Amino acid sequence: MRSFLARRLLSTIPLLLAIVVGSFLFMRLAPGGPFDTERALPPAVQANLEARYGLHQPLPQQLSLYVGGLLHGDLGPSYKYVGWSVREIIAQAFPVSLTLGVLALAMALVTGIPLGLIAALRHNRWPDRLAMGIALLGICVPNFVLGPLLIIVFVFQLRLLPVGGIGSLQQLLLPAVTLGALRAATIARLMRAGALEVVGQDFVRTARAKGLSERQVVLKHVLRPALLPVISYLGPATASILVGSVVVEQIFSVPGLGSFLVNAALNRDYTLAMGTVLLYSALLIALNLLVDVLYSALDPRVELG
Amino acid sequence: MAAAPNAGGEAVAVPAAATPARAASPGPWRQALRRLRHNTAATVSAGVLGLVVVATVAAPLLSPYGFSAQDLAGQYQPPSLHHPFGTDPNGRDLYTRVLYGGRLSLAVGLVATLVSLLIGVTWGTIAGWAGGRLDNIMMRVVDMLYGLPFMFFVILLVAYFGQSLVLLFVALGAVQWLTMSRIVRGEIKRLKDREFVEAARALGVPRRRIVLRHLLPNMLGPVLVYATLTIPAVMLEEAFLSFLGLGVQPPAASWGSLASEGAAAINAVRTSWWLVLFPGLALGLTLLSLNFLGDGLRDAFDPRSETA
């Protein structure tokens, strides 16, 4: 276990480095720059700005400076939010996305797992059809359609909930549903597939044969192995849900990280975009590692290698 | 993945009979088609898709209004007999706009999927066929791109390709090839040491021809299935980009851009729900059908697989 972790952590270093270099070049070679405005800046101003942020240096040198800064935990200054460092921006926006994301994920798990399980246990009968119909609906209704419709129904018609912002649980409810719907639907489908694979196996028949109640069979024998596909989906899903969705954030006026990422990429705010990308990539790698560990914990046949 | 196309496909060591469809009956393709026809959801979906395509193509026949004909006296009208889907902030008939908008949405789905097919199949084939170091490097590149947030990838690609509509389609396809390349690589690796490939090699068939005539036809099943599922993915992507104002630019419209314009027009004073609902419904129905059809195709090509 310990050697597995050590090896995996070591192997993430080249991957992270590749992601840094890749996204750096990808971003720099894109047309446009952080100081583009509607009216062209006077050349002298432009040159001064570029000198101020070191953008006049050759690209390889800038890259090595950036990576050097990263090693000291320095993500650089934002080009667009003058006076703010990337680290400060992330420190403000990430907790918001995190709260919303955790809530959305919890809702997705709480609805998706039972839905998928019921569908599998009533395979090809009406509960299965109904559950999978709901799940497909969740996959096919885009969040920018779901969000406004939820607002119309729950805020403007029923007047049950506030329209947006953050601070209270009620305010976060609709954005969390909008953010989690797609994940809940995917989890339900994966859960169903996983459970279907398991219920046909011998050990389940044995469990039934020895007289366990259906409830015990499901909770003790079916659930654990059936969760495996869901677990492996959760790695990437959690990473993207925690970083936030620009669509949900715009609709519900939530000041999360997703909007910063999109706006930074749009405005070529190089450092801010890189900082968010790195946060996402690091989260993704860490969560995938966690998934592998969980996987072997849930299924003793899987060895960490 | 699908093991189905092999039975007939692998018998074709003779280059002349390269298309598995022409192999001895009942060939795997015909079997798959038969299984597909027994799948009610997939059949109905195919019908719905057909209707949607016909409706968007025949849009001028189905609506008395022009696509951008404004009626400034009739803004924000709720659905009525004259305007079944209501009217938008400029008094344009939403039903007409949804019909025409479908053209762009469907075109995006097709073109971008073709682009993703082209890149993914080429990348995966080269990696799988070459093996060794090149394979390793190419797959690490895929890993790296997987590690980037999707939005970052799309936005920068759109920046590279510019705002023209056709290039937007290309950019959308260029985001979605990663999984396809992995599938194709896996298939190539699985197939390339099989006897029929060895036989072709022994006969002196050139490499290019082996890949094109012997390997590619044999993995058409899984590739086709994944392509069907890529169409809804790119259509959603286009809608997402349109929401950000990066996608389809007015006066052109797609279902995605219509729905996001509708979302922007909603406020506490005026809840014009139809502006979001109907474009969203059209998009959702089409995506639903494509997903059902894709699932049906997968089950048809690989009867052992279960809908996931």
What this model shows, in words?
The complex is a heterodimer of chains A (305) and B (308). Chain A has helices spanning 2-28, 43-52, 59-71, 86-121, 126-140, 143-157, 169-199, 202-209, 214-226, 228-243, 246-251, 257-267, 270-298. Chain A has 305 residues and is mostly helical. The relative contact order of chain A is 0.14. By secondary structure, chain B is mostly helical. In chain B, 67% of the residues lie in helices and 0% in strands. Chain B is built from 14 helices and no strands. The radius of gyration of chain B is 23 Å and the shape is elongated. Residues 1-23 of chain B have low confidence and may be disordered. At the A-B interface, α1, α5, α6, α7 and α10 of A face α6, α7, α12, α13 and α14 of B.
Briefly summarize what is shown.
With 305 residues, chain A is mostly helical. Chain A has helices at 2-28, 43-52, 59-71, 86-121, 126-140, 143-157, 169-199, 202-209, 214-226, 228-243, 246-251, 257-267, 270-298. Helices cover 75% and strands 0% of the residues of chain A.
Task: Report on the biggest sheet of chain A.
Answer: none
Between the first and last Cα atoms of chain B, what is the distance in angstroms? 13 Å
Number of E-state strands of chain B: 0
Low-confidence stretches of chain A: none
* pLDDT averaged residue by residue of chain A: 84
Which structural class do the helices and strands of chain B define? mainly alpha
- Give the helix level of chain A as a range of percent: over 70%
In quaternary terms, these chains amount to heterodimer
Map the helices and strands:
The complex is a heterodimer of chains A (305) and B (308).
Chain A: H1 2-28, H2 43-52, H3 59-71, H4 86-121, H5 126-140, H6 143-157, H7 169-199, H8 202-209, H9 214-226, H10 228-243, H11 246-251, H12 257-267, H13 270-298
Helix pairs in contact in A: 1-13, 4-5, 4-7, 4-10, 4-13, 5-7, 6-7, 7-9, 7-10, 8-9, 10-13, 12-13
Chain B: H1 6-9, H2 28-38, H3 40-57, H4 59-62, H5 94-130, H6 132-146, H7 150-161, H8 165-175, H9 178-191, H10 195-202, H11 207-215, H12 220-243, H13 255-264, H14 273-301
Helix pairs in contact in B: 2-14, 3-5, 3-14, 5-6, 5-8, 5-9, 5-12, 5-14, 7-8, 10-11, 12-13, 12-14, 13-14
